[in-house]
Design brief:
The structure holds two protein chains of two kinds.
Chain A: H1 2-14, H2 17-42, H3 51-66, H4 71-93, H5 98-118, E1 128-129, H6 137-159, H7 162-172, H8 174-179, H9 184-210, E2 212-213, H10 215-218, H11 221-235, H12 240-258, H13 266-280, H14 284-303
Antiparallel strand pairs in A: 1-2
Helix pairs in contact in A: 1-6, 2-6, 2-9, 2-11, 2-12, 3-4, 3-9, 4-9, 6-9, 11-12, 11-13, 11-14
Chain B: H1 2-32, H2 38-57, H3 61-82, H4 96-117, E1 132-135, E2 138-141, H5 142-164, H6 166-176, H7 178-183, H8 188-213, H9 222-235, H10 240-260, H11 268-282, H12 286-299
Helix pairs in contact in B: 1-5, 1-6, 1-8, 1-9, 1-10, 2-3, 2-4, 2-8, 3-8, 5-6, 5-8, 6-8, 9-10, 9-11
Chain lengths: 304, 300
């Protein structure tokens, strides 16, 4: 992993801007997918409203930067606000289980988008621009890729920790977990906050990179959807799954943009992918790979 | 007095449509414990189908119901047989797989609509679209009256089928207790197929009705889906009247806030969502639960 971090750090020196942009997008995807996976995969609470946190982080950065704060300082504040928001909506919504929780999160995401479009100090429906200033792509690139690597590391640490075990318990059988003394609500809220903070951080970096935010771009429902799809297609609940999913989707996005015929089919592809995964391999790409690998190994044993 | 009467009458009319919309979702959830997110896409498709029938064959939207409903029923059964039935059943609790699967179906439907009809906003304008009449001193649009009429009719038919036919009894039985229904000899799989077909047909009907009132794009169904969830949670799954009551409460809340507060209508989605969450948290059994509580409190 250190090797990956090192390579990514020095990448700007020998890759061209176009490729760097693509890598940045994939890094963002990895951050979003892995963060979501903390709550959705490890704890089993599927939320389709994560664009709210990205948006909160992005808007915080822009709004504070417009009032004179240095963009770098806005990042932790954005993360904090996103985490705070996640706690506020967490307490009522975590009372709901399974699909009801998911529906509630869809509603939250939509509500946030609608409010952001209607409120004037946030620029309304047309969004806000970052103040003109020195925008250093290199440092933004490094921050985003560093965040992506850090996220994978965080996911690894969590999955091997007692915290991670508690999350898995909640995912499998929340009543049994409670009976064993796990405070499921506090656990869910905590992981939700961590997850939201990371996404909020990414949101701030997003705002700095694109220099412009609007409800349509950061609070988009389709974005929330993609954030859910990546880890699920890649392998929900694992550490490598979201990364796989993010890379797959990054590649898909690039392919879609380059082949004109497929440009209008993004929804179809996402939908078909979702259907295929749910019907044939709920454990996603990683699950499929593992299954095929196990089958190959089994053949070894049987022959011997 | 006038604004209040305005609100009540309009809410009443809107409630009919909302109830039709919600019932499609309710029957699928009740029988199969599946949350049909594709419902939004089906409603959207219903609106577009009506649109095509209107523009190509000059078929009045209200008349096209005769075509749309059976078509969508068949489509629903087909969808059930090909896709939904293969899902692993997770007992009585709704499964995430079905939720996400139907989500995928919704996306595919949206894309289909974009390809077939482009993303431009469409609407249906008939000779009576902009006319209005006076009802109890309140001006109401003619399409709204037609929509209410159709909704009321469909709900009455539904009530009849549910309570006077074997099919209806079977549906209610499976909704209440699937295992007991199986023990009583109900073919749960066939009932599920029928229920899915009915749910889809109702969604198509709702789509047709909606097309007479609103302009639509492929992205159309989402806020209505949210309202439908809200209504089911409020009204419970046990009866058509429950759904109707939930629909009325929501409509009242929407029209009331639009008339008496300065909340912009764009925030209406946020409103339905808030109501949904509040209801889920405070009244998990919905209004019927509340009534039961009051009734039991009164007895003891």
């Amino acid at each position: 992993m250190l090797a990956a971090a090192g390579a990514l750090y020095f990448a700007p020196s020998f890759l061209e801007r176009g490729t760097l942009n693509d890598v940045w997008s994939v890094a963002l995807a990895v951050v979003l997918a892995s963060s979501w996976n903390l709550l959705g995969g490890f704890a089993g609470q599927v939320s389709i409203g994560y664009s709210a946190f990205l948006g909160i982080g992005a808007y915080t950065t822009v709004l504070l930067a417009l009032r004179g704060m240095s963009p770098v300082l806005t990042l932790p504040l954005g993360a904090l606000l996103a985490a705070g928001f996640s706690v506020i909506i967490g307490y009522p919504t975590f009372r709901l289980r399974g699909p009801y929780f998911t529906i509630a999160t869809i509603g939250v995401g939509e509500a946030v988008r609608v409010v952001a479009s209607s409120v004037s100090f946030a620029g309304g429906a047309s969004g806000l621009r970052m103040p003109a200033g020195s925008f250093d792509f290199e440092s933004n690139f490094r921050s985003m890729t560093l965040l992506a690597v850090a996220l994978v590391w965080i996911a690894l640490v969590v999955s091997r920790s007692a915290f991670g075990s508690a999350l898995a318990a909640v995912k499998q059988d929340i009543d049994a977990a409670e009976a064993l003394g796990v405070n499921s609500t506090r656990l869910k809220v905590t992981v939700h906050a961590l997850s939201a903070a990371l996404v909020g951080l990414a949101g701030g970096l997003y705002a700095i990179n694109f220099q412009y935010v609007s409800p349509g771009s950061v609070f988009d429902f389709r974005l929330s959807l993609t954030i859910v799809l990546m880890p699920i297609v890649g392998g929900v609940g694992t550490v490598a799954g979201p990364v796989l999913g993010a890379i797959l989707f990054g590649w898909l996005q690039l392919k879609l943009l380059s082949i004109p015929a497929l440009l209008n089919s993004s929804l179809f592809i996402y939908g078909a992918l979702l259907i295929a995964v749910m019907l044939f391999e709920p454990k996603g790409l990683l699950g499929l790979v593992r299954r095929l690998w196990a089958r190959r190994l089994r053949r070894f044993y049987v022959d011997a | 007095m006038q604004p209040a009467l305005d609100v009540v009458v309009n809410s009443f009319l809107a409630a009919g449509l909302y109830a039709t919309m919600a019932y499609g979702l309710a029957v699928i959830y009740g029988v199969m414990r599946i949350i049909n997110l594709a419902h939004a896409g089906i409603m959207m498709l219903g609106a577009y189908a009506t649109f095509t029938l209107f523009t190509r064959f000059s078929l009045d939207p209200f008349l096209s119901i005769v075509v749309v409903v059976p078509l969508f029923f068949a489509g629903g059964v087909a969808l059930y047989r090909t896709v939904v039935r293969r899902l692993p059943r997770s007992g009585s609790t709704p499964s995430m797989e079905s939720l996400l699967l139907l989500f995928g179906v919704w996306l595919v439907l949206q894309n289909l609509a974009y390809v077939l009809w482009s993303g431009d906003t469409q609407s249906i304008l008939t000779s009576y679209t902009l006319r209005s009449v006076s009802l109890l001193g309140v001006r109401v649009g003619v399409p709204a009256l037609g929509v209410f009429g159709m909704s009321a009719l469909s709900l009455l038919v539904l009530e009849f089928v549910l309570h006077r036919t074997y099919l209806g009894k079977a549906i209610r039985a499976v909704t209440q207790n699937r295992d007991a229904a199986l023990l009583s000899g109900v073919d749960a799989d066939r009932i599920s197929a029928v229920a899915f077909g009915v749910g889809t047909a109702f969604a198509g009907l709702a789509g047709t009705l909606l097309s007479t009132l609103f302009a639509f794009t492929p992205d159309f169904g989402r806020s209505f889906l949210l309202k439908a969830f809200c209504i089911i949670v409020l009204g419970g799954l046990e009866s058509v009247t429950g759904v109707a009551a939930g629909a009325f409460v929501l409509a009242l809340l929407e029209n009331g806030t639009a008339a008496f507060t300065t909340l912009p209508t764009s925030l209406q989605d946020a409103l339905s969502f808030t109501l949904l969450v509040v209801t889920l948290v405070v009244l998990p059994q919905g209004l019927p639960g509340l009534f039961r509580l009051v009734r039991d409190r009164g007895r003891g």
